[in-house]
UniProtKB/TrEMBL annotation:
It catalyses: cholesterol(in) = cholesterol(out). This is SSD domain-containing protein. The lineage of its organism: Eukaryota, Metazoa, Ecdysozoa, Arthropoda, Hexapoda. Belongs to the patched family. The chain crosses the membrane at residues 273-296, 353-373, 622-643, 655-679, 685-707, 728-750, 762-786, 836-854, 1107-1125, 1132-1153, 1159-1184, 1205-1224, 1236-1259. Keywords: Cholesterol metabolism, Disulfide bond, Glycoprotein, Lipid metabolism, Lipid transport, Membrane, Signal, Steroid metabolism, Sterol metabolism, Transmembrane, Transmembrane helix, Transport.
Length: 1287
């Protein structure tokens, strides 16, 4: 029993031993690998692997070295057996380099991605997570693998995707996933889509189908163990490399301050604060005024019983003998001026012939200078000071780099076409109407016709911008940069016939379009670059939205064709481009009129069009301006006459005198322009359009005052006509001098403005007013003397050689308007209740204007500058409706920065090892808050791409064998560069200098996407001296958000400058802390540049400039008035108060009539101050020199004497001419001239004829005893003279 049991036990042990040996043999023959070696090459030159069911094989040493480059983790524990051979490792490294072009800048992302590639390529345990699904045979009957399943953990896929999701591409300002997720943009990409794209065999980059089968973590099947490789977050370093930079990993970004809350409107109790405050001021002011007027003053009969003849000076008046110093000085000043003007007037009245000949000769000599005048129409030279920051920066950019391209653009909108719904395997896609097949065909025909435009031998290919063409070589038109939808189809109309099937759905050109729109880098245009859908399409964004990664470009309802033409700093080099652009405009004008489809609305422009249309606009409104002036001339000529009887109508009329006065006004303008023609100060169209109007306003008033004062005057006994005219000029001359000098000083001080157009206007106007005044007190006085003699001799006006029959003349007396003022209007206005009501009403008007004036819009809409019938106006309107991307902005870095120094590189770059506050990192952080910074995309970075290009030097950098010069990396006959790198894996100093020019000349392609010729060929300016390369300046290009209104533009400029100032401060501080001398560090600066900055910079300081100009003008008027009014501070203050109220109330009108504050309206405001002097100073001077005693009497006297002249001389003259401006074709004339001129005249007349007399009756200058004593003495002398004449 025991022996049998022992035998059985021995047999059982033997079976166990056999089973163990068999199990061991089975285990040793398990299928560890699914492939080994390469046995086929497909049509894309991709290698495909051989099936292999055996165990891993030992890798030779040179293969291990290759494996160590990217898959070093597989060599842990001295592992040397793998399911791949050396050739497969070489292919692995080569293929990984393609992804490395974009992802190497983020080490943890690249490491995470490469780990699974290394595992499925070479893992000795492939069969645990991979399975061969399909094999095929090639022509040699060799079997190769065509499809595999790869089981992978969702945890790995999600973490790898997250670590790579923010990696940027500096060349484009986009994310890597915009280029690496197939037809999906970064915003539409997700982990599954990304990995599916990497395994999709239909892609030219994938050698065979890899189907990723995802499993939840810790999920194991009996057959497979999902691959779950360890991953590293992007903000952690890996393999002794630093963490990803802020621009590639949000987790690495420094925590900035929280976004400030949007500004809250200033309100009190839910109401506008300005209105509430000014309402309170009004209530308090009115209460105080009414109490002072009615409660705390005794009733006075003077309110109803005042004198308006000014002859109430009594010899028995008891004068105070103790006059103040200023009273005596004022009386002497007034006496002196009256005596001077009396003698002056008598002299020129006595010598009219000599005066007129001398005056005409002088005007002719000065006017000849017009032949030397240069009219400036360039908007930059008009509105940007040569010393302004934006102008200097623009000149720097244009000089160091080439000027921004000239843009020829066409916007084609679909009309009455439906949207297109296209059914696909991914669901229905909705396309905009512009993707209609026939519509696209017509767009292509138009595009090709434009390419063939021949302008006197100049074609588009001769002037276009072609970044990938060699300098100096002839350019094929296909290489010209054209941003057009047809770039996606390589300008091939047959692509519209593409047809295929996908799971029962028809695949058409719309599917290709969708893929291209989602990833433009899959469909490069013929010129070699992408077509940005944000530039090529329009109308796809709802109003107020900005571009995002999820923007649906396919909903566009407009297509945009953009042709880029080379620009030149020297205008003489632009002749070919200007000629072609002129032909282009003619072609498009003809096309839109005769050839365009009924389903198209076409708007177009060229680079020269704005300036051309501004010139045309000026010419088109010449007739309107002439009619306006003609009406004013006719009114002046007719109204100067004082006809009492119809029989004497041709004798008493003063048409000749009126025409003479107008000619004097024009002569002053001609003389002013001629003087500056000799000097060489360029003129502007504003001068031609505005200054005659201004000088008429001022000069005509003086003419009316002089003539009407004579008409109301009686010649003294034994007084000759010449003496009478001299005496009258002595009476009104000081007032004329006061207004003319006040206005001239006002304009001369306005000439301190930095804005060329405002400065030129102010200087021309100031000189014109001085000359006009001089001609009036010389030539007009002489002409007036001759005309008065003609009238006294009963000779006909105009036909002065014909003598009238009636010999008896009618004595001078008051006109109808004068009688109305003195008998009706003045007594009514001087009533106590009326005066109080006037003060309350005008104070309310002032308070209301102060409350709303700060709300005036700043800027000038482009549309207003164009004529209503202009094609450019239609373009601007279409642009605002359809444009969905902002203009590019260049951050220019200049100064003595040592780019070969790693610490200086770290101040600029945005990749590995770069500072958290570097130049590019700060711009990137700004782009993340685009709603505040107006920066839509991160800036392109030549320095980061240069580092990446140098890292891939073995495939990207080549040089010629014989010379060592640059060689394109596609040239197989050249040698590969061997770039020595430092510890940061960047080129060492000498290598950096040597190979940077290579990088800037190398054209990008699939193998070397970071080559810099296309993106950075013009972005870096360097020089070679003493065998050293010195980078003088470079720029980093970003994009602004969508900018439509003027405020968008100048706020974008302000934001870009703020960003640049922060960057400059950082650079200078870091350099000095690194030991760089202060004077050297302070040369380093970053400034922003965009093509529109030079036009919109003025609006950043428009309010301060306006207040400064107004303040200087009013101050100059105060000083001149104070001096010429005999140092009368009361009168000067009254003038300043009234002028200030006129300007403030004009500001209120600007708000309610939608007149924005800009350079044009600023010129008009300066002019308004000048014209306001006319409404005020004559009246105030008359008040100060009135012989009446009480303030009310003097106010009434001055208004009676001057009111009719002011009303007829300024108000009615201008009103007639202004109405004509309402019919101007130019919108800028309608808004800024008709509306503002009308406001100036109406508001000025209301203040001068209503408010000012009332104000004088309250706070007018007190009676000057010295002045009254002088008037008494004059009156006595005149009385004695009259008696002597009688006796």
């Amino acid at each position: 029993m025991s022996s049998r049991t022992q035998l059985r036990s021995t047999a059982f042990g033997f079976h166990i031993l056999i089973a163990t040996v068999l199990l061991t043999l089975i285990q040793s023959s398990k299928q560890d690998c699914i492939w080994y070696g390469v046995c086929n090459t497909n049509i894309y030159k991709h290698s495909q692997n051989c099936p292999y069911n055996g165990t891993a094989k030992e890798m030779p040493q040179d293969g291990l070295e290759l494996l160590k480059r990217r898959c070093g983790f597989l060599l842990e524990n001295s592992e040397n057996k793998f399911c791949c051979d050396k050739q497969q490792v070489e292919l692995l490294n080569k293929n990984v380099e393609l992804a490395g072009n974009f992802l190497d800048r983020c080490p943890s992302c690249m490491e995470n991605l490469v780990r699974h590639i290394c595992q499925f390529t070479c893992s000795p345990k492939q069969s645990e997570f991979m399975k061969v699904v399909a094999t095929e045979k090639n022509k040699e009957d060799v079997v190769y693998i065509s499809s595999v399943d790869l089981h992978v953990s969702t945890e790995y896929i999600n973490k790898t995707y997250k670590s790579c999701s923010q990696v940027s591409v500096p060349q484009t300002g986009q994310l890597a996933f915009d280029l690496m997720c197939g037809s999906y943009s970064a915003s539409r990409c997700n982990p599954t889509k990304w990995f599916n794209f990497m395994g999709d065999a239909s892609s030219p980059y994938v050698p065979f189908q890899i189907t990723y089968i995802q499993h939840e973590p810790k999920y194991n099947t009996k057959e497979f163990t999902p691959l779950n490789v360890t991953t590293v977050p992007c903000n952690q370093g890996v393999n002794k490399l630093p963490a990803c930079s802020c621009t590639d990993c949000d987790l690495s970004c420094p925590q900035g301050p929280p976004e400030p809350a949007p500004p809250v409107p200033f309100k009190i109790a839910g109401l506008d604060a300005y209105l509430v405050i000014m309402a309170a001021v009004f209530v308090v002011g009115v209460i105080v005024f009414l109490m002072g007027s009615f409660l705390f003053t005794q009733g006075s009969s003077m309110d109803n019983n005042f004198q308006i003849d000014g002859n109430d000076v009594s010899d028995e008046m008891d004068y105070t003998e103790h006059d103040s110093y200023f009273e005596k000085l004022g009386a002497r000043t007034e006496t002196f001026l009256q005596n001077v003007f009396t003698k002056w007037g008598t002299f020129f009245a006595s010598n009219p012939g000599m005066t007129l000949i001398a005056g005409a000769s002088l005007v002719a000599i000065l006017g000849y200078g017009i032949s030397f005048i240069e009219i400036t129409t360039d908007p930059v030279k008009l509105w940007a000071s040569p010393n302004s920051k934006s102008r200097l920066e623009r000149d720097f950019f244009d000089t160091k780099f080439s000027p921004f391209y000239r843009i020829e653009q066409i916007i084609i909108k679909a009309v009455n076409l439906p949207q297109i719904v296209h059914n696909t395997s991914n669901g229905p896609y909705t396309f905009g109407p512009v993707f209609d097949r026939d519509f696209l065909t017509e767009v292509l025909n138009l595009q090709e016709s434009i390419k063939q435009i021949n302008a006197s031998g100049t074609m588009l290919k001769n002037i276009c911008f072609a970044p990938l063409s060699d300098d100096g070589s002839e350019i094929d038109v296909s290489k010209c940069v054209v941003q057009s939808i047809w770039g996606y189809f390589s300008d091939d109309p047959s692509r519209l016939d593409d047809n295929d099937e996908d799971h029962g759905f028809n695949v058409t050109y719309l599917d290709s379009l969708y893929d291209c729109i989602s990833n433009p880098y899959l469909c490069l245009a013929p010129y070699g670059g992408p077509v940005d859908p944000a530039i090529a399409f329009g109308g796809f964004l709802p109003s107020g939205d900005q571009l995002t990664g999820s923007t649906k470009y396919e909903l566009a309802n407009a297509l945009i064709l953009t042709f880029l033409v080379k620009n030149h700093h020297n205008r003489t080099d632009l002749q070919n481009a200007l000629t072609w652009e002129k032909e282009f405009v003619e072609f498009m004008s003809n096309y839109t009129k005769n050839n365009k489809s009924a389903h198209m609305d076409i708007a177009f422009t060229s680079e020269r069009s704005i300036e051309d249309e501004l010139n045309r606009e000026s010419q088109s409104d010449v007739l309107t301006i002439l009619v306006s002036y003609l009406i004013m001339f006719m009114y002046i000529a007719i109204s100067l006459g004082h006809v009492k009887e119809f029989k004497r109508v041709f004798i008493d009329s003063k048409i000749t005198l009126g025409i003479g006065g107008v000619i004097i006004v024009l002569a002053s303008v001609v003389s002013s322009v001629g003087i500056f023609g000799y000097i060489g100060l360029p003129a502007t169209l504003i001068i031609v359009e505005v200054i005659p109007f201004l000088v008429l306003a001022v000069g005509v008033d003086n003419i009316f005052i002089l003539v009407q004062t004579h008409q109301r005057d009686q010649r003294d006994p034994n007084e000759t006509l010449e003496q009478q005219i001299g005496r009258i000029l002595g009476r009104v001359g000081p007032s004329m001098l006061l207004t003319s000098l006040s206005e001239s000083f006002c304009f001369f001080l306005g000439g301190l403005s930095d804005m060329p157009a405002v400065r030129a206007f102010a200087l021309y106007a100031g000189v014109a007013l001085i000359i006009d005044f001089l001609l009036q007190i010389t030539c007009f006085v002489s002409l007036f003397t001759l005309d008065t003699k003609r009238k006294e001799e009963n000779r006909m006006d105009i036909c002065c050689f014909i003598k009238g029959k009636k010999t008896d003349s009618i004595a001078n007396n008051e006109g109808l308007l004068y009688k109305f003022f003195s008998s009706v209007y003045v007594p009514f206005l001087m009533k106590k209740t009326v005066r109080a009501g006037v003060m309350v009403i005008f104070f309310a008007w002032l308070c209301f204007s102060i409350a709303i004036a700060p709300k005036i819009d700043v800027g000038l809409d482009q549309e207003l500058a164009m004529p209503q019938d202009s094609f450019v106006l239609h373009y601007f309107q279409s642009l605002n409706e359809n444009l969905n991307i902002g203009p590019p902005v260049y951050f220019v870095l200049k100064g003595d920065l040592v780019y070969t120094n790693s610490s200086d590189q770290n101040l600029v770059c945005a990749g590995q090892h770069c500072n958290d506050d570097s130049v590019l990192t700060q711009i990137y952080l700004a782009s993340r808050h685009s709603n505040q910074t107006y920066i839509a995309r991160p800036a392109s970075s030549w320095i980061d791409d240069y580092f990446d290009w140098a890292a891939a030097a073995s495939s990207c950098c080549k040089y010629k064998k014989d010379t060592g010069d640059f060689c394109p990396h596609q040239d197989t006959s050249c040698l590969k560069c061997n770039i020595t790198k430092n510890s940061l894996q960047r080129p060492v100093e000498k290598e950096f200098e040597k190979y940077l020019p290579f990088f800037l000349k190398d054209n990008p392609d699939d193998q070397c996407a970071k080559a810099g010729h296309a993106a950075y060929g013009g972005a870096v300016r360097y020089s070679n001296s003493h065998e050293r390369l010195n980078i003088e300046t470079s720029y980093f290009m970003a994009y602004h958000t969508i900018l439509k209104s003027s405020s968008d533009y100048f706020l974008a400029l302000a934001s870009a400058r703020k960003i640049s100032a922060n960057i400059t401060q950082m650079l200078q501080g870091r350099l000095m802390s690194n030991g760089v001398p202060m004077e050297k560090a302070l040369t380093v600066e970053v400034f922003p540049y965009s093509v529109f900055y030079v036009f919109y910079e003025q609006y950043l300081t428009m309010w301060s400039d306006t207040l400064q100009s107004m303040g200087i003008s009013v101050l100059s008027i105060f000083v001149v008035t104070f001096v010429l009014m005999g140092f009368d501070v009361h009168s000067a203050l009254v003038v300043v108060i009234t002028i200030t109220m006129i300007v403030v109330n004009l500001g209120g009108l600007m708000y309610y009539w939608n007149i924005s504050l800009n350079a044009v309206s600023l010129v008009n405001l300066v002019m308004a101050v000048g014209i306001s002097v006319e409404f005020c100073s004559h009246l105030v001077h008359s008040f100060a020199t009135s012989k009446s005693v009480s303030q009310i009497d003097r106010a009434a006297d001055s208004l009676s004497k001057m009111g009719s002249s002011i009303f007829s001389g300024i108000t009615l003259t201008k009103f007639a001419g202004i109405l004509v401006l309402a019919f101007a074709k130019s919108q800028i004339f309608q808004v800024f001239y008709f509306r503002m001129y009308l406001g100036i005249v109406v508001i000025g007349a209301a203040h001068g004829l209503i408010f000012l007399p009332v104000l004088l009756s309250y706070i007018g200058a007190p009676v000057s005893n010295a002045r009254l004593r002088y008037h008494s003495q004059v009156a006595a002398a005149e009385h004695e003279t009259a008696l002597a004449g009688i006796l």
